[in-house]
Amino acid sequence: MASPLSPQTITCKAAVAWGPGEPMSIEEVQVAPPQPMEVRIKVVATTICRSDITLWESRGHIPIFPRIFGHEATGIVESVGEGVTDLREGDHVLTVFQGECKKCRHCKSDKSNACETLGVEGNGLMHSDQKTRFSINGKPIYHFVGVSSFSEYTVVHSECVVKLSPDVPLGKISVLGCSVATGFGAAWKIANVGKGSTVVIFGLGAVGLAVAQGAKLRGASRIIGVDINPDKFERGKIFGVTEFINPNDYKQPTQEVVKEITTGGADYCFECVGNVELMRTALESCCDGWGMAVLIGVPSGKMELSAHYGPLLNGRTLKGTLLGGWKTRSELPTLVEMYMKKEIQIDEYVTHELPFADINKGYQLMKEGKCLRCVLHVVI
User: What Gene Ontology terms describe where this protein resides (cellular component) (predicted)?
Assistant: First the structure.
């Protein structure tokens, strides 16, 4: 029998998606206590990521509903499960969709951040026991990538959170849980962009602009943004974009435009949309010999990439990245520290702030391309 001090089930409000593309419904849900090696978090702020929309619409993906989305968030540990030793009630944390067990082959290697134990959860259930911690009147409600931050309380594996110092503001920094860390790391860590190089970024959302910031800090001399939304061009300059290409302004394919203005192709190209045709365009926009195309976007439709072997045979490299290559618990704190020292921009990615109840408005703003990141303030 549980002792009086054991965590009990909490009833709170959450934004539940009942079916693909259906508006979120604010419901009262039951959140079970954390199980061994888990923590229950009181969510303070959460942001809407493009992948929240892609999987909500279930384009090209297996639909898992009813579900609570959300994975970029900050909050306060409310209770801890058995075996958790490095976190305690009251700790401030940042959630991440991929953990770091520090024990598996990948966690021990300096070549990977793909934890074998706590990789991206894809079936809507918790890693530990393949069950859900959410329910409504006994009906299971599924998780999203092990986080589900569109809820006043959520349960997360303790090795899928980053502990924050109490002086770190719990709000806009939630974007470091996915988008900004992913883009920044793709340029800074995965590509290791060289000084004086030419970079082309396909897609100027939050991820693409984070690539621009990382490339700028690495010393890139030309950072070319490619997007069909001209409204993003001025904002791109804030993060280091020096030139812009709107494919709709040209009759020839974008890769030919890039090759023409770069005299043979870019040193680095980053695909930040999740379009497989654009991925091929990125590869073909690279120069021979050393050009590198880095794939970041999550596909929302066709998922098979086909490309001619020629560019690869001629020395180009095609790479993929998840969360920018960062080991979550041991390396993401470095980005938090850089933010606190004002060495990197974070707040500038947040263009809208809304109360949690307006989550559907936030989704619409994202779908229409009217915002980079929208912070939802979760008031309990």
Answer: cytosol
The residues, any chain, with a CB within 8 Å of residue 214's CB and separated by 6 or more, are 183, 184, 185, 186, 187, 188, 193
Q: Rounded to whole angstroms, what are the CA distances from 265 to 211, 251, 270, 288, 297?
A: 18, 18, 13, 8, 21
> 302 or 231: which carries more pLDDT confidence?
231
Stated pTM of the model: 0.95
Amino acid at 120: V
Q: Where are the alpha helices (DSSP H) in 198-253?
A: 206-217, 232-238
Average pLDDT over residues 301-326: 91
d(CA 33, CA 35): 6
CA 88 vs. chain centroid, Å, equals: 26
The pLDDT tens digits for 151-164 are: 999 999 999 999 99
d(CA 291, CA 311): 9
Which tokens belong to 377? 């303030």
